[in-house]
Structures are given as C-alpha cells and as structure tokens.
Amino acid sequence: MSEKANRRIILGSLLLGIILGCLSCAEPAPTTPIVSVTASPPATKTVAASPTFEPTSTPTASPTVTPTPTPTRTRFPTRTPTPTPTSTLAPEARRAIMERNLSIAGCEPPCWGGITPGKTSWQDVLDLWQGWVVKVNEKSGFTYVVIEMNRRLYAYDPDRVEIWSKDGTVTGISIRAQLFDDDVVYTGTLNTYLTRFQLPDVLEQYGPPSRVYAEGFVGAFYNGLWTEYADQGLSFGYTTDTVLDSAAPLICPIAEGAPHIVANFQAPGDTFQNYREYVEATEEYYDDWKEIEYLLPEAFYAAFRKPASPNCLRVVGPISESMTSVLPDDFDPILRPAEDARLTELLATNSGCELPCWWGITPGVTRIEEVQALFAGYGKPIGIWNWRDEAVYEVGFFARHDPEPLDYVVRQSFIVEDGVVSAIHIDGVPPMPVNYGDGPQPDRRYHNGIQVMTMSRYLTQDWQRYSLASTLARFGAPSQVSLFYDHQSCGNEYSLGVAYDNLGIFIQYGGQGQHKDDNTMMLCPSPGSITDFHFILTTPDSEFESGEQTECGYRCTVSLETASDMSIDAFYRTYIDSASSACISVLERTEPTCP
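Predicted structure:
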C-alpha cells in the first residue's frame, strides 16, 4: 500500500449499519463509510457508502462457492386464497365429517384425513370432504382445493389444508397452522395436529432427513427451515429466527418450538421439489429455497434432535453475483456454542495487541492472506466483494450463544488495498437490531412480551475493554467527539463517536436517549446503557471527519460542541470516570415531522 501523507475518513450518519449491507436491493453491498485519501500533490480516492460493485477477478481458496445468479422474488408469507363461497352444510354436520375423516384408522403420514397421495382419486377427495370443499381451483395444470379452518381476526395466514392433483390422483397435501403467538396458544384441530411435528419430534420419529433447506429472501435473509424425507414422501417447514450475515446468513430453530409449522405429504420421491413446483405454478408470490450445503444429515440430526437446541445453521452461498464466498477446508455449517469461550477471550485480550490492531491484524501491515488464514482456523466463511482497486472481505460473524439462541454477534469487514488491510470495521450488536433499514424486514417475534434477540445481556460486560471510560483512560482525550441522534422526537436511538486521528481509531457507542418536554434530548452514555459498539480502525495519523451536516432531516450527525455546551476536555474529564451517570443535553427542533 502506498504511503499517504494524510488519510481522511468521513463518518456518515449511517454508521449504525456498517456491516449489515443494503437490504433494499436485489444485490446487497457492504455499507462502508466514505474513505477519502489526500496526498501531496492532491489526489483523491473515494469509496462510496453503498457502492455498485463491478465484478472483477476474485481471489479464491478451496473450497469456493461459485456465484450463481438467483432471481430474488417478492415474498409474502403465503398465498391468501380468493374468497370462496361458504358451505351451506350445517356447522354440526361439517364437524362430524371432519371428526370422521381425521379418525380413520391407519391413516398415518403421508396419509391425512383419509387421503393418501399417489393413491386417492380426486373424486374421493370431493366425496370425503363434502361440505368443506366449496370451490375447486385450476391453474397451470394443477387442480387444487383449499380447506380453511380457524380463520382468526386480523390473521393474514389462516390455518388451512391444501390438496392438489395433476392427473386425477392426489399429488400432495399441505397442512399449515400457527401454533402460538407470543404467549397465546391456539388449540384448533390443525394446531393440535401439527404440534406432533416440531423439529425434535420429527427427528426422533423419522431420523436424519434426506435434505435440509432454508427458505426466505435470497440476497437478504432466510427465516424458514425445511426438512425432507424423500423416501417417505414427507417434508416439514418451520418458522425460525434469522440473523443477517453477508458471508453466510444464519437461521436458528426456535427454542420453545416453531410457532408456525407446515407439513407436506406426497408419494415417496423428490418431495420438496414436487411441492416447490406446485407452489411456483399456483402462487403469484413465494419464497426462495436453498439447500443447506456441506451439511451431513447425521450431523444435523445430532445437533437438533434435542428440544431447545442452542445450535444454528449457516446458509452458505453468494448473496450477490458481485460476491464470492470462500470457505475453510473443514467448514461446518452448524454454528455451535463452543465458540463462546474463544470469543470472550479475544474481546478481553485482543490477542495481545492494542488498537488499531484488532485480534492480531494491523491496518497498513497485515496482508489479506494472513487474515484469511486466521479466520479459516476459526472455521469462518468469508464473503469477498471487489470494487475498483479495493476489495472488502466480510467475515462470518462470531456470536455469544448464552443466553440462547444468541446474545450478541461480532461482525467484521476488512478493506484491502494492494493486498494489505487498510481499514477494519467491527460491529458488536444484538443479533436482530430493531430496524435493518429500508428493505424487506425479517418477521418480528416476541416471547413473553419481549421482542426476541434485540437486546443483549452480556454485551457491555464482554466489551468492557472498549467501554467509554476504558477508551478514554487508555488513549486520553479524543481529537473529535460526534453525535448522531434524532432531532425531531421520532425515536430514541443515538450514537456517540470518539475519534483519535493520530492513532487511526474511531469508536461509536449506541444507546437510547430520553426526550424531555423542553425540546431537549438527554444522551446518557453510562456503561450499563450502551446497546452496541461500532469501530473503524485504520493507519495512524488519519483524520476522521464527522460528516457534520448543517441541513438534514429528522436525524443527522453533529459535533459535540455544536450539539451541546460541553467541550471535548469537559467530556473527557466527565466520562473517564466509569461510575459517571452524567448526561449530555442536546436541543431538538420544534414541530417534528417524523416519517
């Protein structure tokens, strides 16, 4: 990397999303701050915050996942059937028919309600479920019926059974229902029936699956898990927790059980592919599915057969045609709690080096081959983006699993110039921030009234080495202090950044502010109130520019001196005390116009 007389890094107002990437696009790109390099004579090189990547030759290692263009489809939870006529059969008669069909002796999966895929004729379906089948649909060569049960008020996706045929004989049956919603348990016929098919129960009864698939948005996130038993004509789908990661998105089976289950029954064969063919032919909107690669069925069985498994699955593959995924030779797609001890040790010791060195990697010194070797030793995948004369290497995140499934994650990306790391971006955040951006959003899930995986119990404890007081004690008064907060009472989130230009260190602390009646907002960066950490580390003698905005919308970045009456020296003397509970009072605008 060439010598630079002066390096200047501009910190935009979107630093809270450094590693998450852009979810509003079909091809997400890593979000990095604008980096301007000025030399003498003046010459400027700029890396945009959300660049449009141009594919170039990409360094690879073995094994490598080759990018395959995959269309990204608009996703809705499921098809909402067109309103159909209501049966004229009396409710008591309909109930008697259902109870009769569901009590037929010997009707075990893939049989349901007296119907066996590959054997039962279409006319038999109409006869068996007379009064429940009120309309027969035909589309793209498929004949199908939808039997709805337990349509709840405001429920987008009613509990239902779909039965379809291509040749006069039943091809498949799909049974879906919501079992619970937070602390509300549903006890209808289908809800009760599907409780027997929670993931640990299926693995216990049927053994290792033939294949495992992820379901969701390609290029963004996956929030569903499917297991297939092709030789038995069975496949089961589960709602999961999802965690974004450009290198390999993560899906985590829900410890208390999946709130939404789908059971598909067909004749033995390529069960999942046949179901997918039906969905793509009859639904206008549907998810994408991707097989979990490098996963041994026996390993999946062992990892998830016990209830409340703490393990998660990585969905390996390029999330964009502009990204190449590189995997270690012994890559394991199952993310296990065993890395908790290693992670907490790395955060406590920083591998014996001092910032801007991070885990033994020093900007301006360490070559990218050393970075790849280091994280390959930790079993981490790497997603590589190439753009102009720079490359961005995003490492599969580390996570603390306790409390399960994940307490917080550590995301890391490395900016590389001429084969040498020039900057490092690190995020320490809860697995599911409250908002991922303007693109598609993962389904929000609550347990006991609390939104899952949006708060961390151990983040500030494990990151004590980098607390605001520790940083001030170790490095002294910062050269700059910047604030990013809501100027118009639209939200509580804020971030406070401290920059050390001479050392090449910028650390940003996130938290929740407090709005006051006098049009002020109180920002209180006490150790226990910090919700996330964001680092930018680069070569010494850099100059971090806050990107201060004189005109902005309801949020923008300003310097400490502009936003408050506190000087940097007073800030240093106040917050070097780890017991300080002092707050910074900043002025808000009146007459807020929130989006």
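Summary: The first helix runs from residue 91 to 102.
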